[in-house]
Amino acid sequence: MVKIFIDPGHGGTDPGAAANEIQEKNITLQISSIIRDILLSEYEDVSVLMSRTGDETVSLDSRTNAANNWGADYYVSVHINSGGGSGFESYVYPGVARQTVTYQEIIHQKIMEHTLLSNRGMKQADFHVLRESNMDAILTENGFIDNAADAAQLKDSSFIDHLARGHVLGIAAAFHLTAKIGNSQILQPEPTIATGLFSVQIGAFSEQSNAEKLAFQAKEKGFHTFIKQENAQYKVQIGAFKEREYAEELIQKAKNAGLAAFITID
Ligand SMILES: [Zn+2]
Known about the structure:
- The chain is an alpha/beta fold.
- 40% of the residues lie in helices and 26% in strands.
- The longest helix is centred in the N-terminal third of the chain and has 19 residues, at 24-42.
- The relative contact order is 0.14.
- Mean pLDDT is 90; it is low at 183-194.
């Protein structure tokens, strides 16, 4: 049995960061509750304890004491960032064992694969929950509540689902959790076309310089770009996914940024 302690940051009289009509404590509870539900419903031999399951005030000491007393194998603290910036970052305690960093790498990577947040990197910090927990621990900062674009995503339930799913897939990979029979299609959804990748293309040109110009504009707007040469054309793409829904999300993001985007199947 793998014991995962999930800690929704803040709560009760401590709202955490607040901006754009949302409060950190509510978003962290949403993400954490979905992480718990997916872990328990889709995986064998895992148990979950949460530091809070409602809008309760829980001190930092109570949180780490609960995890330590329970004998958790892993501590996952979920937060939303603020203070100017955008994107996702994760933390472990400075100088921790290689194993803790390996877990961080796996989980960080899965979350990056399952959201379109920009990657602010894997970091280390002397946070209470990382320092006082006796087991391997990670703290995730899931977007910036005071950034309009991040906040808009945090208000979107499908984005919250993706954040939670990224955490789950990371925890499952790190701890070699076994999926319950019958749920494998949820874990690895098949693309509509078995071998295809859904690429998001924003333009195609016969002149390379025109493709480069568009790629530069997209980059300025924060997209990752690459130019693919095919059939005497230079195609500007901003992403490729195994799952169509992620391609469609990126298209929406591109459209919001004023780019004409569509899916091509490679
Ligand atoms: Zn926080």
